[in-house]
């Protein structure tokens, strides 16, 4: 089976695919001090808890926005699959034409998400990744990756608000029942969640204006399930789009996943 690894700034998300079917997904904290063995032990424990085994892993592919962690995960994946894993780069066949000043500076997660979304929908797209950062990736109906926008994510906003103010507490990130908060906690939740959703919607509207047409808006990332119901522009939610994209790029590069 294929192990897909998405190394983010806050979390590592990994998935196990049998052919093109995602049969399980897990996450761990992104810890720059951990070794390949540390991450391998965490994954092995998570797989055992789900009735799976690392012995079923025959190949792996990874993408990372934390370059310093790539060697550890390459080693971990090779130790488990006994095969050198694929590492996502702009040299791969993504099915897209990149219109980016320097494609090497394009985040691997944005590239993977764009490839997966275009392969699935084959139309003009705005892919909104709601994670540590909130990113917008714009793809035309012809598969041209035009660029997009990058903003601080919802979690960063919540942490900054509590860290930089004397009286505002850290709150749980849950959708309040009303925009008008009746106490400090719900007021903060409203500002964070509805405020972030409004930012997302306005940027989408501005992108539509610049394109001169409407595009399908697809959300992914750790906060996608929380924020999408508050958005008036998001149309599709695929929380594991990055894992799906990794499977796609592996298939394009090495052929069908071995069982």
Features:
Nucleotidyltransferase, domain 5; alpha/beta; 7 helices; globular; five-stranded mixed beta sheet; 2 domains; 37% helix; 24% strand; 259 residues; six-stranded mixed beta sheet
Low-confidence parts lasting 5 or more residues at pLDDT below 50?
A: none
Structural class: alpha/beta
Radius of gyration: 19 Å
Strand content: 15-25%
- Give the termini separation: 5 Å
What is the CATH homology-level superfamily of the largest domain? ATPase, nucleotide binding domain
* Count of domains: 2
CATH class assignment of the largest domain: Alpha Beta
Residue-averaged pLDDT? 94
Number of strands: 11
Tell me what you see in this structure.
The model has no long low-confidence stretch (mean pLDDT 94). This protein has helices at residues 36-49, 70-81, 108-121, 154-163, 184-211, 224-227, 241-254; strands at 2-7, 11-18, 21-29, 59-64, 86-87, 97-98, 125-130, 133-139, 144-152, 216-220, 236-237. It is α/β, with parallel strands linked by helices. The protein has 2 domains: 2-87, Nucleotidyltransferase, domain 5 (2-Layer Sandwich), CATH 3.30.420; 97-242, ATPase, nucleotide binding domain (Nucleotidyltransferase, domain 5). Helices cover 37% and strands 24% of the residues. It has a 6-stranded mixed beta sheet with strand order 6-9-8-7-10-11, with helices on both faces. The protein has a 5-stranded mixed beta sheet with strand order 3-2-1-4-5, with helices on both faces. The chain is globular, with a radius of gyration of 19 Å. Helix 1 crosses helix 2 (70-81). Strand 2 and strand 3 form a beta hairpin.
């Amino acid at each position: 089976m294929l192990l897909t690894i998405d190394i983010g700034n806050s979390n590592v998300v990994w998935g196990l695919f049998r052919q093109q079917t995602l049969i399980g997904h897990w996450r761990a904290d992104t810890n720059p001090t951990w070794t390949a063995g540390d991450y391998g032990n965490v994954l092995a424990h998570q797989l055992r808890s789900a009735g799976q085994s690392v012995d079923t892993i025959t190949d792996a592919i990874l993408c990372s926005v934390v370059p310093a962690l790539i060697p550890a995960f390459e080693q971990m994946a090779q130790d488990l699959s006994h095969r050198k894993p694929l590492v996502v780069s702009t040299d791969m066949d993504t099915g897209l034409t990149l219109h980016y000043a320097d494609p090497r500076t394009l985040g691997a997660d944005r590239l993977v998400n764009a490839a997966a979304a275009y392969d699935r929908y084959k139309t003009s797209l705005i892919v909104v990744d709601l994670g540590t950062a909130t990113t917008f990736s714009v793809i035309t109906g012809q598969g041209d990756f035009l660029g997009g926008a990058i903003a601080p994510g919802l979690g960063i906003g919540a942490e900054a608000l509590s860290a930089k103010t004397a009286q505002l507490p850290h709150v749980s990130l849950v959708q309040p029942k009303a925009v008008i908060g009746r106490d400090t906690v719900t007021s903060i939740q409203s500002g964070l969640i509805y405020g972030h959703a409004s930012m997302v919607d306005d940027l989408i509207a501005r992108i539509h204006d610049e394109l001169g047409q409407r595009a399908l808006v697809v959300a992914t990332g750790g906060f996608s399930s929380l924020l999408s119901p508050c958005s008036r522009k998001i149309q599709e939610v695929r929380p594991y789009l990055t894992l799906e994209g990794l499977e796609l790029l592996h298939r394009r590069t090495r052929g069908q996943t071995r069982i």
